[in-house]
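Minutes, project huddle
Topic: does the predicted pose make sense with manganese (II) ion bound?
PN asked that the exact inputs be recorded in the minutes so nobody has to dig through chat later. Recorded below.
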Amino acid sequence: MRPEEGDGSSVAPGFHTMWSELRPVGRHPGTGGYRRFAWSGADAECRAWFAEQARRRGLVHEVDRNGNQWAWLGNPAAGDAVVTGSHLDSVPDGGAFDGPLGVVSAFAALDELRARGVRFAKPLGIVNFGDEEGARFGLACVGSRLSAGRLTAEEAHRLTDADGVTLPRAMEAAGYDPDAIGADPERLGRIGAFVELHVEQGRALDLTGDRVGVASAIWPHGRWRFDFRGEANHAGTTRLADRRDPMLPYAETVLAARRNARLAGAVATFGKISVEPNGVNAVPSLVRGWLDSRAADRAALDTVVTGIEQAAHEYAEAHGIRLDVVRESFTPVVEFDHALRDEIARILGGAATGLRVPVLGTGAGHDAGILSGTVPTAMLFVRNPTGVSHSPAEYAAEDDCVAGVTALADVLEGLACR
Ligand code: HGY
Ligand code: MN
Ligand code: MN
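Predicted holo structure (tokens), as shared on screen:
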């Protein structure tokens, strides 16, 4: 049944129930944004919600060595499992859909398949990957990177949040064993296909008028920390000529980042900054700025970031400031599995009608991207009418969400059922 066909009447109630239960968890009353950070209390509530959904459906719930949650129908040891899901954590004051839409839709799609009376020929898994946003420790997709062997336990143990709490201490405080983390090839080896449904973080589907699309690729992207070190001093008594103010080269670098990105057709954002001592009446001693940059290909991204770094060093030198640049996170370009992508487009397009399904690239990173080198992966996008994401204003219409569930159910039926 194609998303345009299904009226979703059997999907909507269950979707709505889950959405209503999850919606208040970690939501800030003042901003309406979500603060579901790795190993926090809100994260624990999200995990409890996931376990409860699995229990209600008679699924086998397990938490792997890296804290990722799995809910199984059938025995995953049989192999060639079809897995769907996403993440439940958020960026600071993020929206309701980025991540949770994929997890809620996964359970709702299973409910729909059971309502259709399908017979599963393969194990079906639903996953919640931990710490996808990297909001607390600065590295994106920690849960899936660890499992895929793209982050070592030693590297993960060095991750520290803004309060100096290390990832191991945070895991322990949440009741998890940080010494168990590491690659999990056996678990990933059981997966024949991973399909992540996600709210679109852009307006491509809104512009084409489609409810659901299929992902083609993820732009290469990364995060770099720029440390501008100057000299603390009195804001009221220090002559301008006598200052070594790190805020100046930082400000010039922000403008250079925008210029370089625009010229390369890329994106660059300084969205996070920390200032020491951070006093209104004090010239800072240290300004730390985090750059997020992404481009359609690696060469363009390297050009943009190299250009920004060179400009930053020139500005720093001109102001007598020391600059250190550290790459904190990097994800190479992801080309999703072509055979799986095309199979999904065929399932959703309806071979009989040849109805096309939009295939679109994205600049947003996802767990599906991290797994793509290890497991055949694909993504479905659900229309986001404004394209806004990583904001409390993020939104998707319920009938588009229901169409997404119907599409996911069609795909899972095509991949996992007789
Ligand atoms: O940053 C990203 O693209 C994703 O939301 N983690
Ligand atoms: Mn996100
Ligand atoms: Mn996401």
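Observations noted during the meeting:
- The two ends are 16 Å apart (CA to CA).
- The chain has 13 helices and 15 strands.
No decisions taken; revisit at the next huddle.
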